[in-house]
């Protein structure tokens, strides 16, 4: 049976970059490209970042049961097609999902053994800088994304692993360790010394082991909301 990896993060946390780096380093992964009803941004291409379809098309897919999960975010639908899991199982690969907290909750209900990973920015100030620096959104949208991030981050205790994306190279190596260690754990085979070290590295990012690191990050998002940002 294919392993399913769920990766979630607030917008601007660097999730897409990490996922792209992971796909270069780990073989035998099927990456699910989400369907959406929003318009392409910048250099986005249909079938690369997303499958861009109309609202009636998306709703027809809902009625046909074509989605593993779907949600409406900022007035647009986003969804993961069931066909990607079928493809992964046919190939004997694992499935990698880049989805938000709503989608992750739906997947966990359907596939409880799915491995969930939540990526956090170092703090609210860093996330705000990243959102502004990428120049994709206006000030109103950035404020809305920050408010949404504050709510999404409250869901981190529901995830198996928490990864603070501070330095790209270190975060990429940590994500690779998590994915490979879960493969090893489910394989049931005897581990080499290198594989044991890999599993120990991954273990440092398990929910129970990151609480002290996460608390100040969550607190940095709570303060602006208390002042009425939302």
State the CATH topology: Rossmann fold
> Which word captures the global form?
globular
Indicate the radius of gyration in whole angstroms: 18 Å
How would you classify the helix and strand content by structural class?
Answer: alpha/beta
Unreliable runs: 225-230
Spatial gap, N to C terminus: 43 Å
Count of the separate structural domains = 1
Mean pLDDT level: 91
CATH superfamily: P-loop containing nucleotide triphosphate hydrolases
Short characterization:
The protein is an alpha/beta fold. It has a single domain, classed as P-loop containing nucleotide triphosphate hydrolases (Rossmann fold). It has helices at 15-25, 55-63, 83-91, 101-110, 124-133, 139-153, 168-187, 193-203, 211-226, and strands at 4-8, 29-31, 35-36, 51-52, 67-73, 76-81, 94-98, 115-120, 161-164.
Name some characteristics of this structure.
single chain; 230 residues; alpha/beta; Rossmann fold; five-stranded parallel beta sheet; four-stranded mixed beta sheet
List the helices and strands and how they pair.
Blueprint: E1 4-8, H1 15-25, E2 29-31, E3 35-36, E4 51-52, H2 55-63, E5 67-73, E6 76-81, H3 83-91, E7 94-98, H4 101-110, E8 115-120, H5 124-133, H6 139-153, E9 161-164, H7 168-187, H8 193-203, H9 211-226
Helix pairs in contact: 1-7, 6-9, 7-8
């Amino acid at each position: 049976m294919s392993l399913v990896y769920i990766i979630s993060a607030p917008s601007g946390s660097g999730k897409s970059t990490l996922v792209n780096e992971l796909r270069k380093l780990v073989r035998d992964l099927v990456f699910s490209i989400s369907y959406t009803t929003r318009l392409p941004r910048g250099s986005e291409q249909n079938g690369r970042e997303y499958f861009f379809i109309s609202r009636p098309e998306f709703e027809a897919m809902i009625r046909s049961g074509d989605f593993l999960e779907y949600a409406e975010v900022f007035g647009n639908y986003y969804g993961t097609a069931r066909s990607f899991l079928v493809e992964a199982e046919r190939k004997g690969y694992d499935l990698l999902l880049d989805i938000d907290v709503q989608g992750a909750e739906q997947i966990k209900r359907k596939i409880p053994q799915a491995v969930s990973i939540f990526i956090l920015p170092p703090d609210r100030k860093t996330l705000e800088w990243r959102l502004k620096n990428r120049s994709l959104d206006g000030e109103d949208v950035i404020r809305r994304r920050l408010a949404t991030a504050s709510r999404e981050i409250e869901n981190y205790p529901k995830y198996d692993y928490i990864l603070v994306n501070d330095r790209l190279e270190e975060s990429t190596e940590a994500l690779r360790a998590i994915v490979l260690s879960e493969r090893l754990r489910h394989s049931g085979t005897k581990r080499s010394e290198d594989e044991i070290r890999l599993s120990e590295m991954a273990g440092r990012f398990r929910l129970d082991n990151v609480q002290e690191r996460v608390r100040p990050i969550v607190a940095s998002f709570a303060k602006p909301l208390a002042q009425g940002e939302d």
